[in-house]
Amino acid sequence: MVGLNQQPMLPKLFEGVMPQEHHTKWVKCWEDKLTPWDRGGPSMALYDLIKDNPNEVIPLPSESAPKTALVPGCGRGHDVLLLSSLGYDVYGLDVSSHALEAAKENAEKALAEGLYKTKGNRRGTITWIAQDFFAEQWKDVQTPFDLIFDYTFFCALPPPMRPAWASRMKSLLSPGGRLICLEFPSEKKSSEPGPPWAAPPTEYLGYLSDPGAQPETDEHGGVIAEKTRSAMPSGLKRLVHIKPTRTHENGTEDGRVQDYISVWAHASE
Q: In terms of domain of life, where is this protein from (predicted)?
């Protein structure tokens, strides 16, 4: 499969487009069935993290305590289906209605084939949302969420939109909730064009530690590692940061895992 960071047509397609207008290009990609970023399956790094649940930092759903989850930029919904199989009531959000049509088809086919078997006492519900992630409110959707999973969403946003991404994530995360980021592409340089834009660990630290603020960056817009600071009282703090044992092929090179996976909580906890 051709990886998002190996697909030269995307940076060319987005070249010269104002950051606030990028969503129109993603919609057009779905309309044209141009989806080289699709992984064809769920994130096993996410599955392994929740299954292992280091230090029990992730709130797990149960019959007496159901939990909600959000997957922004869900595309064909692979990770939505995975989280549902783990018992979460999941909301798959995408700005493209064509993406959600593909997600519904994918869900119907996968469940008919017996994929995504229920791992707990119940299968969580699935709700598809055709909305702009940055919209202040979503129609008929109750927020915030107990778990949010970000993969190839952060890296799809140009750096000028990252402060708004962090601020929105904070507002969507419930007290006691967890934001999980599968960090990709972690070894790309900030000088290289996107999407995907470089997403090393310092980017997540720089933006999530003080949501809405602009951290110090280099001439290419990459966060300067030496200038990152501890989480502000109003920010998010990182609880877990590891290299997963398994990840998508696109997050590896010569068998070596490049991706990181991180877990974040409100710093006030």
A: Eukaryota
